[in-house]
Amino acid sequence: MEISPEQQKLIGVKTVKVDIRPLQKTIRTVGRLEADESKLATVNTKIEGWIEKLYVEATGSYIKKGQPLVDIYSPELVATQQEFLNALKWAKQPADSPQEKDKNSSTDLSRLIAQDAVATLEASRQRLLLWDVSAGQIKKIEESGKTIRTLTLYSPVNGFITQKMAVLGMRVMPGEKLFDVADLSSIWVIADIYEYELPLIKVGNRALITLSYLPGKELYSQIDYIYPTISAETRTIKVRLKLPNHNNQLKPQMFTNVEIKINLGKKLMIPESAVIDTGKGMVAYVDLGNGTFEPREIKAGLRTDGYIEVLRGLKEGEKVVSAANFLVDSEAQLKGVKPLPLK
Questions:
Q1: Angle 75-96/105-130 helices, nearest 10 degrees?
Q2: Cα separation of 160 and 43, whole Å?
Q3: Do residues 62 and 167 both lie within one domain?
Q4: If pLDDT is split at 50, 70 and 90, which confidence band does 96 have?
Q5: Are 86 and 137 part of one and the same domain?
């Protein structure tokens, strides 16, 4: 099909070269901030007892690792300490007794009692350790010869109290949860990716994260985990990113905008404006020179940033109409010129 230079100028025909250029796909989605699960801790009790003192007043309080949280009075704890002290006394008996020098049945009996006391001493020591009585506290009990009335539970991490079940005077049972603590020094971003976008993403993809809470601020991260299951309702899969949380500006359950840029290498590309969707396929008009244009069917690939990937139908270096191509197409239809089919 021929169009004179005058007609081309009149209708505003412009052409561009079919070129190989970097193809970058941008996936835009919404994310939600969540606490880093690897930095969550639960404080519970391993003994039965009653809460006699609370060091934390309310949910949301910030605490440091090793900070006392609660004192628990437990009769069982006191009884075990007394058993420990009695065993300690009997374990020392043979060494302290002047009868040790006598080689008689009384000495043998004392030796057997001492051996049994050593076993009891070690068993009660291990029981105290399993109840989270520290080695330092046990040594203090051993040196003073006195029991401690209450067991103090300490925070295992720095963080915020996210749940507080402990109440003054409450009876507690072994395994009962008293506090949940969250270290928010780093925070997760959980974003949803559509099923059809899954082949494009991988661990390590860089992402730009913005929040309405921090207008104008851009945060950068990368995908560090892709979850193994897809939601049946939304047909999306979750991906996880991690952000440092300076000054605790980021709060769990905040929403974020996430942009993941995927580099797909260099591909044969033309502007989207150079492609006409006929409903039956994609058509581009090739400038053969001297006012001659040839309509061709093309096979299109990915679209990104105003460009479209050409899989078949065009070659690098050819020129295609990028402006007024609908007018060129109308002229071709009037003249009965059909697109060259894909081979």
A1: 150
A2: 13
A3: yes
A4: very low
A5: yes
